[in-house]
Specification:
Layout: E1 6-10, H1 15-27, E2 32-37, H2 41-47, E3 54-58, H3 64-67, E4 76-79, H4 87-90, H5 92-113, E5 118-124, E6 136-137, H6 150-163, E7 168-174, E8 176-177, E9 197-201, H7 203-213, H8 217-220, E10 223-227, E11 234-236, H9 237-248, E12 269-270, H10 274-280, H11 287-297, H12 300-308, H13 310-318, H14 322-329, H15 332-339, H16 341-351
Parallel strand pairs: 1-2, 1-4, 2-3, 4-5, 5-7, 6-12, 7-10, 8-9
Antiparallel strand pairs: 9-11
Helix pairs in contact: 1-7, 5-6, 15-16
């Protein structure tokens, strides 16, 4: 009979973490699970509804003393906790503190108190930087984060820390994770060029990969993988927005052309994404099933009022466009970042 596994999950209150916790409890209710997350009332309410073989520990991952008890006697560590965009790019000090220093603290604590643990780390497709011109991505490609993408920089640094550790580890570079409940509008919406190639994965499929990894240690140790939904999850950002706008009742995607950046984001198609699928068999969703879930999540009354006020809603969205703001303010550094040097030259020429 297999021994009960002891698993530490950081960031279990997040989109992927919540799905992972539900799946583990459903499939492996006898596992001993420790959850480490921020000490906030909202997070406590979300996590403490889960009972059973669960140890809830709250604290600051950047404080070494807070994580010691969480790291004792663990077999598996699944590290999902991170400050993500847009907050990561606005508060770079906080992002470094949590994403880099926090990861370093976690690694050191696991090395000390659970040296035999298998450490699974969630990295990001953002580490490959702008792939607009060469969207076919492989895991051995050069890592080069886009200008202004501090989140990607923290992921690159954290990956290096893990590779240089004494632990058995694996790294999953997550593609764009699209879930029904993570449709929060932010200015990043306009940072993505419309012709960007995107291969999504759902939170459920992503969580399933981490869950399956628990029993596939020997096939994953010391390796980095690209995690994505596969060919059936590929589209362009333009088409993704068009379908979303239609479902929510926002009508046509008819923003001015200068509302969206023309360069310097990330995403693409993972050409070697099937490598992880062949080991873990985690894919169940497609782009179509994702949109079916989105459709079911939208109430009739929500769509009704969205249709009535869609012009006002879209005007409000447009006001959040950082590329458009950069052009209006003639901010040379941001215009360079979002549109390139030629647009800067045109802006300077028209002003002279």
């Amino acid at each position: 009979m297999e021994n009960k596994k002891r698993i530490l999950i950081t960031g279990a209150s997040g989109t992927v973490g919540s799905s992972l916790l539900k799946q583990i409890l459903k499939e492996h209710s006898d596992y001993k699970i420790t959850l480490f997350d921020m000490d906030k009332p909202k997070i406590r309410r979300k996590l403490e509804k889960y009972k059973g073989n669960i140890n809830h520990i709250y604290g600051d991952i950047a404080n070494p003393d807070d994580i010691v008890s969480a790291c004792m006697y663990q077999d598996i560590v699944i590290h999902l906790a991170a400050i993500i965009p847009p907050l990561a790019d606005k508060k770079t000090g906080l992002a470094h503190r949590v994403n880099v220093i926090g990861t370093q603290n976690l690694i050191e604590a696991v090395e000390t108190y659970s040296p035999g643990a298998f450490f699974c780390y969630a990295s990001s497709i953002s580490v490959y930087g702008d792939r607009l011109e060469n969207p076919e991505i492989n895991v051995n490609d050069t890592l080069k984060c886009s200008d202004g993408d501090y989140y990607a920089q923290t992921k690159i640094e954290a990956e290096a820390l893990l590779r240089n550790s004494r632990l058995d580890w694996t790294i999953f570079r997550l593609t764009a994770i699209m879930g029904v409940n993570n449709h929060k509008i932010s200015p990043i919406m306009f940072h993505v060029p419309l012709n960007t190639k995107i291969e999504i994965a759902t939170p459920d499929d992503t969580a399933r990969a981490f869950m399956q990894a628990i029993n596939k240690k020997s096939l994953l140790i010391g390796k980095t993988f690209n995690l994505s939904g596969g060919k059936e999850c590929r589209t362009t950002y333009r088409q993704l927005l068009k379908r979303s706008f239609t479902l929510f009742g926002l009508g046509k995607l008819n923003f001015p052309s200068n509302a969206f950046a023309k360069k310097n984001f990330h995403c693409g198609y993972y050409m070697d994404g099937d490598d992880l699928e062949e080991i873990l068999h985690f894919r169940m969703d497609t782009l179509n099933t994702y949109f079916q879930k989105v459709k079911r999540s939208i109430s009739g009354i929500q769509k009704f009022f969205t249709q009535i006020f869609r012009l006002a809603i879209k005007k409000g969205l447009l006001r959040q466009s950082d590329p458009r703001k950069a052009l209006r303010k003639k901010d040379i550094s941001l215009v360079e970042r979002f549109f390139g040097h030629k647009e800067v030259e045109r802006m300077i020429s028209s002003a002279s």
